[in-house]
Design goal:
globular; 266 residues; four-stranded antiparallel beta sheet; Arc Repressor Mutant, subunit A; Jelly Rolls; alpha+beta; 10 helices
Length: 266
């Protein structure tokens, strides 16, 4: 099963005949250019679909659909991790989630998450794996709630992490700030599914896991910047930032000043 959000580009080319598409995984697709296509389960029932930039649709896994592109079209394809979908279903009290049809997703929450994934991927994932994991869980939960078919009723999650769980996770994060952290990894430390962990962690701390980690990295960076023998790039790497530019941008966003200015003022 996939644990990682994967982003790709599908380029539709006009053809006289419909082409069969079978996706082995669940995709959310966002049109990047305008155009149209005939889509259906057979050549005799192709329905015309008009796309405008920003339109989002769900591409069901393991379903054969015929597509005849009428115009050159570029589509952003976001693979939704299997484990994220399973966790989303479990948190809603179901064994799994199923999707029927190929619905347009006009939910503003879905649109915002897709945009965040697109921006993060375009920039080369500067915020790290944990942030993208959180986006993957968010998009899985959103599409499950918007158009998923569940076998059991909603089960409300109450409370937060137990003090011992929160302490284990916090210590784990502090010990590994220089390393890439994943949502599955932190959930395993707490002994929970990733979706359940995300909700419980947020209830306990008031912020999602990736923001907690970012705050911890900036706090550690401030301590290290007090050591004049360390270069700014050394501090950035020690705190898990991939580049000094990303480190400076996040540092200023959270602290209101750059790392260099902070060091000069101390």
């Amino acid at each position: 099963m996939s644990d990682v959000v994967k982003v790709g580009l599908l380029q539709g080319t006009p053809t006289p005949d419909a082409i069969a598409h079978i996706f082995p995984v669940q995709y959310v697709a966002k049109a990047l250019t305008a155009g149209s296509a005939g889509i259906g389960l057979s050549t005799r029932d192709l329905s015309r679909h008009q796309f405008t930039p920003g339109d989002i649709t769900l591409c069901r896994r393991d379903t054969k659909e015929l597509v005849r592109w009428n115009d050159p079209v570029e589509v952003l394809m976001i693979e939704v991790p299997d484990n994220a979908l399973r966790s989303a279903a479990e948190e809603l009290g179901a064994d799994k989630v199923e999707f029927h049809g190929t619905p347009y997703l006009q939910d503003p929450r879905v649109s915002a998450i897709v945009t965040a994934i697109e921006v993060e991927s375009t920039l080369g994932n500067p915020s790290g794996r944990l942030y993208m994991d959180s986006l993957g869980q968010a998009i899985a939960s959103a599409i499950t709630q918007v158009c998923g078919v569940l076998r059991r009723p909603f089960r409300q999650v109450k409370g937060g992490l137990a003090p011992a769980q929160l302490r284990r996770v916090s210590e784990y994060i502090q010990d590994r700030l220089a390393h890439e952290l994943t949502l599955v990894e932190l959930a395993n430390v707490a002994g929970l599914s990733r979706a359940h962990f995300s909700q419980m962690f947020h209830r306990s701390t008031g912020i999602p896991p990736h923001k907690f980690v970012t705050n911890a990295r900036i706090a550690r960076a401030k301590e290290l910047l007090l050591q004049p023998e360390l270069r700014v790039i050394d501090v950035a790497m020690a705190c898990g930032f991939q580049t000094s530019q990303h480190f400076a941008r996040v540092f200023k966003m959270l602290s209101g000043t750059t790392p260099v200015q902070f060091r000069r003022a101390c």
